[in-house]
Amino acid sequence: MSQDFRTVESILALDCGSTTTQALLLDRVGKEYRLVARAEAPSTLGIPWNNVMISVRQAVSDLSQVMGWPLIDERGQIITPEHQLGGVDAVVAITSGSEPLRVVLGGVMRDVSLASARRALATTYTTIEGLVSLDRADGDGHELNYDLQGQVRLIHELVPDAIVLVGGIDGGTERPILRSAEAMALACSTLPQNNCPPIIYAGNADLRPQVAQVVGSEASLRAVENVRPSLDLENLGPLQAEVEELYRNRKLERLPGFGTLAAWSSVQVLPAAKAFAYSVQYLARLDGINVLGVDVGGGSTTLASAVEGQFHLAVRSDLGLGCSAGRILDHIAMEMVTRWLPFEMEPEEVLNLLSNKSLHCRTVPQTRRELLLEQAVAREMLRLTLDELKPRWPKGSSYLYPGLLPKFHLMVGGGGALANAPHYGQAALVLLDALQPVGVSGLALDKARLLGPLGSAAMVQPALAAQVMERDALLNLGTVVAPVGTAREGDLALTFKIDYDDGRSLRVEVPYGSLEVIPLAPGQTADMELRPTRRFDVGLGMRGQAGTTKVEGGLMGIIIDARGRPVAIPDDLDERREKMQRWLWDVGS
Fold this sequence. Notes:
There is one protein chain. The protein is of the alpha/beta class. The chain has helices spanning about 50-65, 115-120, 150-160, 175-190, 210-215, 235-250, 260-265, 270-285, 335-340, 345-360, 370-390, 415-420, 425-435, 450-455, 460-475, 575-585; strands at about 10-15, 20-30, 30-40, 90-95, 100-105, 125-130, 145, 160-165, 200, 220-225, 270, 290-295, 300-305, 310-315, 410-415, 440-445, 475-480, 490-500, 505-510, 515-520, 525-530, 545-550, 555-560. It has an 8-stranded mixed β-sheet with strand order 14-13-12-15-16-17-23-20, sandwiched between helices. The longest helix is centred in the middle third of the chain and has 22 residues, at about 370-390.
């Protein structure tokens, strides 16, 4: 639909996820834009409905009832533009409900071109189903295939949606790439035509004509710029764009009901991860700060970061707390999950609970044990997705300690696992345990799951998106102070003095291994003097250096996380469980 966005005052934002669909009405209230109302309905992407629009219409109908304002006409179509009897000026939609693009990745060296290709693929909804490499030290659980016969068999068994071939710097390696291209072309030639995946070539640019000749008419070949043109240069953009376009054509636009959804939308329907990243970029550019946004959804886990003006996105389409909940155990040992629990849980119980969650992905935890298990899984999903981002961060002034996070001024948590936590302290603790920030950071929660929809709404009416984000999107949990260092349990880590605006002051000594929560209400600020001992750094780049900073309060107040970095988890089971329970108590849960 074509319209003048300058006249837009009301937007219906639709977020179509794998487990729920939510409808949000964003409109002018007085002189500013606000979130007026929201409604949600269970997703109808799966059996027996197989149509995204059924849940969309249900959510919009519920929203209309809440508002007493008709949004859908008697033909079941959206009323637009808004007039005296109902409707909205514009509609935007995002979705994370489609299946990921299944990819076979081929290349030469795991730590060079293959690593770059994996970072490019991680920016959208893809899963690497098989890996072809000459580097046998993979260690990621993928089946490696070296000979021509093995490569052909792999593609036949997997029948992927796409094959990505990389390898060699420009002017470099030739023979292994051409042999892989030959195997891929041979495999495609023996597949039914409608199952033949396209081949995306993003390797040695000098070999494009030869690769095209080898592939011939056996498959559709798409050649883009080399993902690793030299050993010290990475060029992810062209491969990212090609994979995103393929995902849109082969997955997103084939969602049942997508055509109607796209017809309703005033702009292109965006993948939810991309829309989420747009909002993180906006938050970073607004004040020129480093921002990390995380979203643990039902079908995937997304992290978007802005560090020193560079923006990065990582999506794990195989890690979600819905129908793929049990897949976490494909990547890590069960002990990595159960280490976060304050009680004993037998392996059979873990498997049963995760299997039930995978089968009944819309259910919510019924007991404290189920809740804390899901939060433990969320920690590990965030940690694994974080590993995708770490190699991409610039090694500038924000990156003080290799292996740890850069200094983030703001960290935002979203997705059902965090937004639906029954206590804000639990959401905060999941973020602290999984991300382990350093220095002084703001902590916020995307409680209404607005960041993704607002990233799309900004394409229609930037002022609306900006004002709703400022007023309604984020719940301020408070400020985290996380000194870096280690010591013996109970040794003094730092002393702080906090001066409140009303003239009161408080001085506290914080022992190593503890979590301290200091009250400071939302909207209030205070001056905080931090004096770490000689073993600890509070984000100033030097151990033992004192400093003063202004901190902002929130629902949690000020959290002093003196557990060290990385967080030390005891080996002794009883001691570990006692510590997990104590940390929950420390944050008021």
